[in-house]
Design goal:
The chain is α/β, with parallel strands linked by helices. It has a single domain (3-405), classed as Alkaline Phosphatase, subunit A (3-Layer(aba) Sandwich), CATH 3.40.720. Helices cover 37% and strands 13% of the residues. It has 19 helices and 16 strands. It has helices at residues 3-29, 59-66, 81-90, 100-103, 134-139, 163-175, 205-218, 238-244, 266-275, 280-302, 328-331, 360-368, 384-387, 428-444, 447-455, 472-477, 508-523, 540-556, 565-573, and strands at 38-44, 69-71, 74-75, 144-150, 181-186, 193-195, 198-200, 224-229, 309-315, 336-339, 349-351, 355-356, 398-402, 405-409, 413-418, 486-490. The strands form 4 sheets. It has an 8-stranded mixed sheet, sandwiched between helices. A 4-stranded antiparallel sheet has the order 13-14-15-16, with helices on one face. Strand 6 (193-195) and strand 7 form a beta hairpin. The longest helix is centred in the first third of the chain and has 27 residues, at 3-29. The chain is globular, with a radius of gyration of 24 Å. The chain binds calcium ion. The site of calcium ion (CA) has 6 residues, from loops.
Length: 574
């Protein structure tokens, strides 16, 4: 079966099963009233997945697996916070962004635009107000929608000095993105600082739980979506804050009138970890997160809603040696969970085939019985058949992208393509700057920096972010093949991806097949990507756009889409 037929079959199956799911709920609820499942999505930040099951320490997260499906091979399409958050809320990758400046403005020097070759480089990533999103799509099915936490959707309203008024401004802006209500909002990462009042802008999962529980209380009689975007376990140090921060202090420099009393005490978190004989630095923050999950599950239980609520938990990027990179350490976020007791056949199962965070919106929509609008552009596939008992792959592969690299993952193989467009290669002058930087590094005794610069040859970039902001994670974990143009890893036998098989003749056919999948992925998206999708593959409109950009670039003697050279060297110069 070819890919399109395969995807079509999967989607068709999802639609049929969605109706089955709802019929089942009707029975489960024991009433004649048709009731769509509530949806609660925990999108957590940078936790190390290995710790989840350690010592039975996280009973609430574990319960999601026991009452639902554990996804043993879960991936995100971008290996860092902001882009991954854009993807889960929009249902598409950055190259399919609806942002005008990603698609239409070729080469004004910004990093998130399109190179002369028609190649798209997107970073950060925000969804637009005028595109479909998870809350807007579920509102089609009559859902009330709520979000809290680290949204990465907003600019901080710094002009407003009163942090409570800032929260109100955020809430109003979020309405335009489809959120009926919101609370405990963090525009981006926390930036803990110490003042005479103590640590400010701290993690406060208790507050997140409290505002979510209040929303659930108010909306218990109608279907709802809660998107809980936790700041845990991202920096600043959750452990330090758990021990030392005032529980009344919260994000955005807010001081609550009263510390929320909806979770076990912070002191008890440390005590439970000590009692279990585990490292409190490593495990206490995770248990703190688990307590937050437990508080929300407790509220659902209390209102009799748990059975017919689909609770999903997944994290935004891998955090085991490779964040920001194309290696699986950056985008493997297993395990992930979906627990919907009223709609799950044989709960407690493990699903071992690759899934993507992009699959969540189609899953939620199928469970809610709402059809995808023609212009929604969702890239994922519903996992409802899996929840209903199917144990076959829903995908041939998952796909992802960051900077100069794109990748496809199948059940066994991981293929990475690293391609630097001509406009991003060094000029003679820039090569001289690089030579000087290498000499300077050697003079200072910084061997690591000198070796990396040398290994780049005449190229800019890395297998990671497009600009060299964070080469360390991927480089440290994959020093041998960090810059290889083609990379093929056997995930069964080499899960740490240390042996690149792309240049081994024995794997020629596998490489060929994986490249074919890559081409299919590129053809599904705007822009070009090296030999996988050239300008000739693009629409006439796109070809015209690229031709115009080239003409302009030639006339002005400028390498469009090329950030100032200092951007490339800054991380190593400091
Ligand atoms: Ca993250």
């Amino acid at each position: 079966m070819d890919r399109r037929a395969f995807m079509k079959r999967s989607l068709a199956g999802a639609g049929t099963l969605a109706l089955g799911g709802i019929a089942m709920n009707k029975t489960a609820l024991g009433s004649g009233k048709l009731r769509k499942p509530n949806i609660v999505l925990f999108f957590v930040d940078d936790h190390t997945v290995e710790t989840i099951n350690a010592g039975g320490l996280c009973p609430n997260i574990k319960s999601l697996g026991e009452t639902g499906i554990t996804f043993d091979r879960a991936y995100v399409p971008h290996p860092e916070c902001a882009a991954s958050r854009m993807a889960i809320l929009s249902g598409h990758c950055q190259t399919n962004s609806r942002r005008e400046n990603y698609r239409n403005e070729i080469g004004s020097g910004r990093r998130d635009q399109i190179s002369v070759e028609g190649q798209i480089w997107c970073f950060g990533g925000k969804i637009t107000r005028d595109e479909w999103s998870m809350p807007k799509l579920l509102k089609l099915a009559g859902y009330n929608t709520f979000c809290c936490g680290k949204l990465k959707l907003l600019n901080g309203a710094k002009h407003e000095k009163d942090p409570w008024k800032r929260q109100q401004i955020y809430r109003e802006v979020l309405k335009t993105y489809g959120w009926d209500d919101a609370g405990a909002i963090t525009p981006g990462n926390l930036h803990m600082h110490k003042t005479e009042k103590g640590y400010m802008s701290t993690h406060n999962p208790e507050w997140r739980a409290q505002v979510t529980m209040e929303f659930i209380d108010k909306n218990k009689d109608k279907p709802f979506l809660c998107y809980i975007a936790s700041n845990l376990l991202h920096a600043p140090s959750p452990y330090e804050q758990l021990k030392n921060a005032n529980p009344r202090h919260a994000c955005d420099d807010i001081i609550l009138d009263k510390a929320p009393d909806v979770m076990p005490s912070r002191k008890s978190v440390i005590e439970r970890v000590r009692k279990a004989g585990l490292d409190e630095h490593k495990f206490a923050p995770l248990l703190w997160l688990d307590d937050m999950v437990g508080a929300v599950l407790g509220k659902l239980d209390e209102l009799g809603l748990r059975d017919n609520t689909m609770v999903a938990l997944i994290q935004d990027n891998g955090h085991h040696g490779g964040k920001n990179s194309a290696f699986t350490g950056g985008h493997d976020v297993s395990p992930a969970f979906i627990s919907w007791p009223a709609g799950t056949k044989n709960p407690g199962r493990h699903y071992k085939y690759p899934i993507s965070s992009l699959d969540l919106i189609p899953t939620f929509m199928a469970a809610a019985g709402v059809k995808e609008p023609a212009d929604a552009g969702l890239e994922g596939t519903s996992l409802l058949p899996v929840i209903k008992g199917q144990n076959e792959p829903v995908h041939i592969n998952t796909y992802g992208e960051v900077g100069y690299t794109r990748w496809v993952v199948t059940e066994k193989w991981h293929y990475i393509a690293f391609r630097v467009p001509i406009s991003r290669q060094l000029t003679e002058q820039e090569k001289q700057v690089r030579r000087e930087a290498i000499a300077e590094a050697i003079k200072k005794g910084d061997t690591e920096k000198a070796e990396l610069l040398k290994s780049l040859g005449d190229r800019v970039g890395q297998v990671g972010r497009s600009v060299m902001t964070k080469p360390k994670n991927g480089l440290k974990a994959h020093p041998k093949h960090f810059l290889d143009r083609d990379q093929l890893y056997d995930l069964d036998n080499d899960p740490d991806e240390q042996n690149n098989l792309a240049y081994d003749p024995k794997y020629k056919e596998v490489l060929h097949d994986m490249k074919k999948l890559m081409r299919e992925e590129c053809l599904r998206r705007p822009g070009t990507f090296a030999e996988f999708k050239t300008v000739d593959d693009c629409s006439p409109r796109w070809q015209k756009m690229v031709a115009q950009a080239k003409k302009k670039a030639d006339a002005e003697g400028i390498k469009y889409g090329y950030p100032p050279i200092k951007d490339y060297y800054a991380p190593w110069q400091t």
